Amino acid sequence: xxxxxxxxxxxxxxxxxxxxxxxxxxxxxxxxxxxxxxxxxxxxxxxxxxxxxxxxxxxxxxxxxxxxxxxxxxxxxxxxxxxxxxxxxxxxxxxxxxxxxxxxxxxxxxxxxxxxxxxxxxxxxxxxxxxxxxxxxxxxxxxxxxxxxxxxxxxxxxxxxxxxxxxxxxxxxxxxxxxxxxxxxxxxxxxxxxxxxxxxxxxxxxxxxxxxxxxxxxxxxxxxxxxxxxxxxxxxxxxxxxxxxxxxxxxxxxxxxxxxxxxxxxxxxxxxxxxxxxxxxxxxxxxxxxxxxx
Length: 294
What we know:
Radius of gyration: 20 Å
Distance between the termini: 39 Å
Shape: globular
């Protein structure tokens, strides 16, 4: 067996082990929640379930993989958490996410207009009902009757997913697929886009699939350009944190489905969404140039 095939089999074995850890630890977290909260459907119980499942399926597996796979016994290095970034890239990363909001709204609006063929009407109805249930659950999570709840929401919806999902998708999966080093090979691009596709699909929110996949690809390229996982973590946190803060500030209109933060860049303001897309592209080009000079 030549070296190329042995390398491929080795990567497949690593991915299989990672998936096994995700299934086993994620299932253990769900069972622990079931045992501790008796599958209670209250918001507090569901928040604990979300925390436990995220930690079990997306925090522990990457850490264990880093410990097992890194021959130098430097798990932080393997996960690319040992490197920071230039202050200019940090500021640009946050600016990109702020600038991207209208573009995300525009893409989400276009994505929501997709209509499946008549033969798949049953699937489409299931997708819509699942999306509505997910939106209702998120609305329940985001309700803030006290300032303490706001901080809990920031931790649960912004900090935890940003850290755990980036450790899982960019830090582990994209790296195992061969997309952690900056080069011009098709394998790097394929790893970024396959990871972005899975990242979006795993959220099971079909009418936001396209913007989430593009966002995942953007995180993936920022990861390889900078060599630091902290940059996509920061961008992911910024995006989710803005959602939490927007809901907190405009909760009444959000409950009525009229939040301006969710519609700016779509509908009659579509042109703002287009300008936002162009601006994000320019900012990413600037980041790439700065990162390659380091």
